[in-house]
Amino acid sequence: MQTSSETHTGTSARNGMLGRSIINVTLRGIPPLLRYALSMAVSEFHGSQHVIVHEDDSTDHPYDTTGAGGTESAPHIVVILAVGHSESTSRELKQALRRHPQSQPLMLALKRDDDDAARLIRSGARGYVAISEPPRAFMTAITAIASGTLFVPLSLQESFAVRYLCPGNDQPESQLTSRELSVLRLLAEGLCNKEVAARLFISVKTVDTHRMNLMRKLGLRTNVDIVRFAIRRELIEL
């Protein structure tokens, strides 16, 4: 099934494409509701490009766009669902790059994750957009990537600047005290506050204070966040 930014049919649709560059977009494994929302964003787009959407649910799809009416030479963007730090997301990205090297992967995240965004872009993604972004962000990403530009939303650019360009932010755990780092490691290994207190010979109340301080400094909210952070930063052995 295909949709496009032109809602006219027949001669008027063909006339609408004259003088407009074409962008092929494949929605790779996107759930129906999200797929509909993205198609609506495309249909409401009135830019200088004609966007043709190819809906693909098959895991064996070779990203072939030769059936798009002679548009095989146009930019081809593959939209891939990013689900946290899942192996399936990384596998899907690698598969897209391997099977169709000319495609430009755009990651569509169910939930914004700055570390995951950086990881996916380093792995070859050409853009990253969370579904919490306004609809226009999706089309901005599509047109930017089609023109050869790497795309991340402004909010994410600001976060990247703080995280990776400011001195000391290349290692966020460096802002922790040695005791807070010890507490983080033990919590990430699965110990409860009482067990951490016994291991470090401190009170449970002190452990809780260290826990609150380290979570505030690192922007973490739950124990699951602590575990994920420790794994990403290789602070514990699996």
Keywords:
six-stranded mixed beta sheet; 2 domains; 10 helices; alpha/beta; 238 residues; Arc Repressor Mutant, subunit A; single chain; Rossmann fold
What report would you give on this structure?
With 238 residues, the protein is α/β, with parallel strands linked by helices. The protein has two domains: 2-153, Rossmann fold (3-Layer(aba) Sandwich); 172-232, Orthogonal Bundle (Arc Repressor Mutant, subunit A), CATH 1.10.10. Helices cover 46% and strands 15% of the residues. It is built from ten helices and six strands. It has helices at residues 10-17, 32-43, 87-99, 114-122, 135-146, 154-165, 178-188, 193-200, 204-218, 223-232, and strands spanning 2-4, 21-28, 49-56, 76-82, 104-109, 127-130. Strands 1-3-2-4-5-6 form a six-stranded mixed beta sheet, with helices on both faces. Strand 5 (104-109), helix 4 and strand 6 form a beta-alpha-beta unit. Helix 2 crosses helix 5 (135-146) and helix 7 packs across helix 9 (204-218). The model is unreliable at 4-18 and 57-70 (pLDDT under 50).
Give a summary of the structure in a few sentences.
By secondary structure, this protein is an alpha/beta fold. 46% of the residues lie in helices and 15% in strands.
